[in-house]
Amino acid sequence: MNDVEWTDFRYFLEVARTGKVSLAGERLGVEHSTVSRRINRLEESLGSVLFDRRRNGFSLTDAGKSLVPHAERMENAMLGALEANMNQSSAVYGTVRVGTPEAFGIHILAPGMAKLNAQHPDLHVELMAQPQFPSLVTREVEILVTLEPPQIGRYTVSRIADVDYFFYTSKAYLDTNGPIQELTDIVNHDFVDYVHDGSLSERYRILDELVSNPRRQFTSTSVLAQREAVAAGLGIALLTPYVAAARPELVNLFPDMPQITRTLWLAAPEDLFRTTRVRVVWDYIRAVVQSYPKLLRR
């Protein structure tokens, strides 16, 4: 194994986390052919096949899975050395990938990124705000804001907020369909909701808990698309205050009556939580959430 370099393991980890050579190359700033060549070299040096190569991506073999924790220890040692050197000047250095629910990342976290950047110009945050929760297990992200805290594995987990959901509709919908005065009135109205095809967390299956056989007029995996559909007059949706706030024409049908409350959790692998760059972003997320209480609960 004389020709194996640390960077070979770095390429291995990126492919293991992304499942795609092309995406690993983008993250590492190299051509995908370079990634393939380095993976091939590592496999040849170790005498093991680390990935099953399929048309839709790369998946770890048993040998690859067993190599991941060793490669991660090497990665953490390198990051620790970099941080020890950078800490001499009190600078925070590196990239932190953060996964969040779509609207939370866009409306709550993203607006404060300029302030974080001003404080730590050498710290780069990659925000993955999307309906599907990215994976901590495969290190697709290093910090996760989630409705479902990990139950298995070595993670640091913290409860950060409770979020209220209300029934919202538009003035245009009410003008066409008449007033809604009682909660029992909504069963005869149209709804906007998530697509429930198994691709999203069951924690998003909220409407079915409140309305028997809701009449869905429009569905989307994106809560922002749902908001726009409601604003256009398509029906009623369960939204959080920070989603609805961007559309002043939306009407909270029962402002004193949150229909359901969900808990947001912050999670990170224990080994990464010990790094300065991750702790700085972790603390930033907590501080941002605390600064927006009325956008989370009413």
General description of the model:
- The protein is of the alpha/beta class.
- The protein has 2 domains: about 5-85, Arc Repressor Mutant, subunit A; about 90-298, D-Maltodextrin-Binding Protein, domain 2.
- Helix content is about 40%, strand content about 25%.
- It has helices at about 5-20, 20-30, 30-45, 60-85, 100-110, 115-120, 170-175, 205-210, 225-230, 240-245, 270-275, 275-290, 295, and strands at about 50-55, 55-60, 95-100, 125-130, 145, 155-170, 190-195, 215-220, 235-240, 250, 260-270.
- α1 (about 5-20) packs across α3 (about 30-45), α1 (about 5-20) packs across α4 and α2 crosses α3 (about 30-45).
- The longest helix is centred in the N-terminal third of the chain and has 25 residues, at about 60-85.
- The termini are far apart.
- The relative contact order is 0.14.
- The mean pLDDT is about 90.
